[in-house]
């Protein structure tokens, strides 16, 4: 039986900061833990969006690629979808989206996911250019990104919310990806405006954190010697 209360996470955003960008989990392994999710490929190779069991990578050329089982990721989230509708949004910016997702509360102390399906009057996304070994830091790699924009596009916003306590393991607050119905645009969201959409929410009571223990670089790395990890994550995201 599929457990819809669990959010599975492979890797941490902290391990990306010093450039530990090797793919340490296959897509097949990730999707054993969910039919919905987000992530990035080895070397920050594009942005991954999984909705309705269909895994797509939006690369730095703006192309949507249907992924195969052997695609590898250094960081990803997945879960089995069981969303409940909590409302609708119209003419809503990111602040209105966050307020509605938090249901009027200033913060939340658990993980949850949000889906917004509808029409977006504006969507701005990014995808990072794939890097190769030896990998640079997250900050340096993230500077090599492509920006995409669209107006009046239909699609799905997939978001994961992490409590402030877990910043470093994930990004505190909302981490948003997008996939257009026609695959014309997608990736990590930088800005958006919702024209009209339904808001669905799924709350998790368990975080299953998976570490790449078979990767020597991760196991031997001293994170105490890195720059301010929390600040680096906030800037990159």
TrEMBL record:
Q: Which GO terms describe its molecular function?
A: acetolactate decarboxylase activity
Top enzyme category: lyase
Q: Could you tell me which Pfam families the record lists for this protein?
A: AAL_decarboxy (PF03306)
Q: Which GO terms describe its biological process?
A: acetoin biosynthetic process
Q: What is this protein called?
A: Alpha-acetolactate decarboxylase
Q: Which InterPro entries does this one have?
A: Acetolactate_a_deCO2ase (IPR005128)
> In which domain of life is the source organism classified?
Bacteria
Q: Which family does it belong to?
A: Belongs to the alpha-acetolactate decarboxylase family.
Q: Does the keyword Lyase apply?
A: yes
Q: Which PANTHER family match?
A: ALPHA-ACETOLACTATE DECARBOXYLASE
The protein's matches in CDD domains, at most eight in alphabetical order, are given as: acetolactate_decarboxylase
Origin species: Liquorilactobacillus ghanensis DSM 18630
The UniProt keyword set, sorted, is: Acetoin biosynthesis, Decarboxylase, Lyase
Pathway it acts in?
A: Polyol metabolism; (R,R)-butane-2,3-diol biosynthesis; (R,R)-butane-2,3-diol from pyruvate: step 2/3
Which reaction is recorded as catalysed by this protein? (2S)-2-acetolactate + H(+) = (R)-acetoin + CO2
Entry EC no(s): 4.1.1.5
